[in-house]
Design goal:
Layout (H helix, E strand, L loop, with lengths): L1 H21 L14 E6 L3 H16 L3 E6 L2 H9 L5 E7 L4 H7 L3 E9 L2 E7 L20 E3 L6 H12 L5 E3 L3 H13 L6 E5 L3 H4 L2 E3 L12 E7 L2 H4 L1 H9 L4 H14 L2 H11 L1 H7 L2
Parallel strand pairs: 1-2, 1-3, 6-7
Antiparallel strand pairs: 3-10, 4-10, 5-8, 5-9
Helix pairs in contact: 2-10, 2-11, 10-11
Length: 289
């Protein structure tokens, strides 16, 4: 009987040890303490999508919760000015977006440049005969009498409306989006067909296609701009380290073109930005240290 009781006790003890072993949990992985939420206003331009997603990933790695808020450009300015958004990623100065800064600038701070020497205007494939905006009417029938634009709230569209009026162009400006405009360009280019689109640099289109800006004798589209970002009032007090990182941030045609190109190739801004970040740690370490 004693042997039987001892055997039962040993079985019970063994079972408890097994249960205890199975119930053991590893220590939780160290969590990055949340540093608050940052709302970034993002419009639908390729470079804006690229850098917004890049910064979302970089800031989340540092413990911030980041929300990307998609909106037309004018809405981004208004949102930052009223404190509904923390950051507006893309402001072209001193020319293209000057009117937005004049209208809404009382409520935000213009920060440092992260890209220099932009261009914008009317663009065609290099195989087309036209070289100047003043020549467009000579080809109106051949080119379909239309200019494929982007979102209607953009400065580029307003400048193009001015160009149509100034040059008395027999063309209709088609409101669309960056992606729709690029789809039209891709279709035309693939078939060696004519098309006139509104475009700007930086843009990945110039890495994929042989394109040219049409000369603009009247200077409707202005001189080159630089791209800066804006922050709401008080942001520098709430998130000084973020502002320090972003005011150190700078990209050139190669780095920004590579980022946009990878995103376009993989078809996903988060995956593409992640891939670019992994391949560019040396550059990122110059911004964030």
């Amino acid at each position: 009987m004693k042997n039987k009781k001892l055997s039962l006790f040993l079985v019970f003890l063994f079972g408890m040890l097994v249960i205890a072993g199975c119930g053991q949990v590893d220590e939780p992985a160290e969590q990055v303490e949340s540093k608050g939420t940052i709302k970034i206003g993002k419009n639908n331009w390729a470079e804006n999508i690229a850098v917004s997603n890049m910064w979302k990933i970089l800031l989340e790695e540092k413990g911030y919760e980041v929300e990307l808020v998609s909106a037309d450009k004018s809405v981004v300015y208004l949102g930052v000015s009223e404190g509904e958004l923390d950051i507006g990623m893309e402001v072209w100065l001193p020319i293209t977006d000057a009117r937005y800064v004049e209208e809404y600038g009382h409520g935000f701070t213009v920060q440092d440049m992260w890209y220099e020497n932009t261009s914008l205007g009317l663009v065609v494939p290099s195989y087309m005969e036209v070289n100047c905006i003043t020549e467009l009417n000579d080809y109106a029938d051949e080119y379909g009498g239309r200019i494929v634009g982007i979102d209607p709230g953009s400065s580029l569209m307003q400048l193009t409306e001015e160009a149509i009026e100034h040059y008395d162009l027999n063309y209709e400006l088609i409101e669309s989006s960056d992606s729709a405009m690029m789809a039209d360009l891709e279709r035309a280019y693939g078939n060696d067909e004519p098309t006139v689109v509104t475009l700007w640099s930086p843009h990945y289109a110039f890495a994929y296609y042989d394109l040219k800006y049409l000369d603009d004798p009247a200077g409707i589209y202005g001189e080159s701009d630089d791209i800066v970002f804006i922050t709401r009032e008080g942001f520098e007090d709430d998130h000084p380290e973020v502002l320090s990182w972003m005011n150190t941030w700078f990209m050139d045609d190669d780095s920004l073109g590579e980022l946009m190109g990878i995103i376009e190739e993989v078809g996903d801004p988060v995956e593409g930005a992640n891939m670019w970040i992994q391949d560019n740690q040396d550059l990122i370490s110059q911004w964030i240290n």
